[in-house]
Amino acid sequence: MRVGLLGGSFDPVHIGHLAMAELARDRAGFDQVWLIPATAPPHKPKAVLAPFQARLDMLQLALAGHETVRPEAIEGSLPQPSYTLNTVKALRERHSENTFSLILGSDTLLDLPNWHKCTELLQNVESVVVMPRPGSVVPSPDELRQRLKSDIPVKIMNDLPVLEISSSWLRRSLENGHSIRFLVPRSVEQFIKEHGLYGFGTLARGSG
After folding, report:
1. In angstroms, rounded to a whole number, what is the distance separating the alpha carbons of residues 202 and 208?
2. DSSP class per residue in 32-80
3. Rounded to the nearest 10 degrees, how much is the dihedral formed by the CA atoms of 130, 136, 139, 141?
4. Spatial strand order in the sheet of 2-8
5. In which element (H, E) is residue 144 found?
6. Neighbours of 153 (CB within 10 A)
7. How far is 38 from 56, CA to CA, in rounded Å?
8. Lower CB density within 10 Å: C or N end of the chain?
């Protein structure tokens, strides 16, 4: 089975994440896409995140009933910080019948050469699929090969819509008492409310 891996904090998961996962699955021809919440993202060492289990629960709610896009909790059992190389190696050990590819936003692609043991990481995946993100310019194929120092296939999905939504914007909206209706699945909105995440329980308006 060909699996695309989409990692992130998912704090909280929103429709942009879900659309990215489904579009990547469809356009890149993956059998499944797995969304992997990080326990301790190495690029956000000082970030204060919602608990890992809460972020995983929200992903499970958002993806309930979807067989081809699902959450993967493996980083909850791996050493911190959450290096993608360690995650991919662990997945390959547990699911040796599968091949894995990385799904990245175009804003993340330029930083990929700086990731922990990037060369070894690229040797452990089949391809890299790049999804468009607001305000980022994707290098040419030749420039990418030079930056990555690898001939790994890189599929750039230039013809897809760009959804200008982020988890940080959603958190600020909730902290300021604004609605996030239709920007996250209804089940996720209810979970945030019931657990008082991001200030929702005390400040949010229009949640009826």
Report:
1. 14
2. EEEEEE-SS-TT-TT--PPPHHHHHHHHHHHTTT-SSEEE--GGGGSPS
3. 20
4. 69-71, 32-37, 2-8, 99-105, 128-131, 154-156
5. helix 141-148
6. 11
7. 9
8. C
Residue count (the chain): 208
Residue found under tokens 């194929």 = 141
Token couple for 164: 């200008």
Mean pLDDT, the chain, whole residue set: 90
What is the helix (H) or strand (E) element at residue 30, kind and residue range?
Answer: none
What DSSP designation does 115 have? S
Give the residues across from 102 on adjacent strands.
5, 128
pLDDT digits (tens, 9 = 90+) for 4-58: 999 999 999 999 999 999 999 999 999 999 999 999 887 666 678 999 999 999 9
Residue type, 151: D
The pair of structure tokens assigned to 96 is: 């040796």
